[in-house]
Amino acid sequence: MLAAMTSDPKDDLLRYLTVAREALLWKLEGLSEYDIRRPLTQTGTNLLGLVKHVAGCETAYFGSSFGRPFPVSYPWMEDGAEPNADMWATAEESRADIVGLYRDVWAHSDATIAAHALDAPARVPHWAADRADTTLHRLLVHMIAETHRHAGHADIVRELIDGAAGLRQEVDNMPEGDAAWWAEYWAGLEEVARRADSA
Q1: How high does pLDDT run on average in the chain?
Q2: Which of 11, 71, 88, 147 has the most CB atoms within 10 Å of its CB?
């Protein structure tokens, strides 16, 4: 007989958020300052900017939304900041600055999460008035989705930089295959796409 499984909903949600946070930071490892900053899409998506953006999101959702703002304010988080200022790091903002900020925000967020029940009320000032009143539960789900979405962006950006791919450091979740296998796989997909397009 299988033992009964127990689960704590808040612990489960925090675990999924933590996995996404760690995956996002892992995508920076082993890259130059240039590579973590360079835009690889037409909209400027870059690895360090993704980390900066997610840090800013957490300060809002697990800080000011619960009346405990993050203790440090940054110009790019203020009303009237340059559009997309949270999506890239200036030359003066080092990798250590942004990663350190994210880890500090992470700790601040986790303290908020630990201090409140899932049904604790929160208010997100920048959301529409009809949904600005919310709960810790909804904000955890929202931030899990947000962080995993951007971790997915980071997966693709990192692969474009140096070919590195995978879910997380300890489990890449990729099929085994050497460079020749992947080249053949890619060529097969390209051929299928061309055949479908000409059909």
Answers
A1: 93
A2: 147
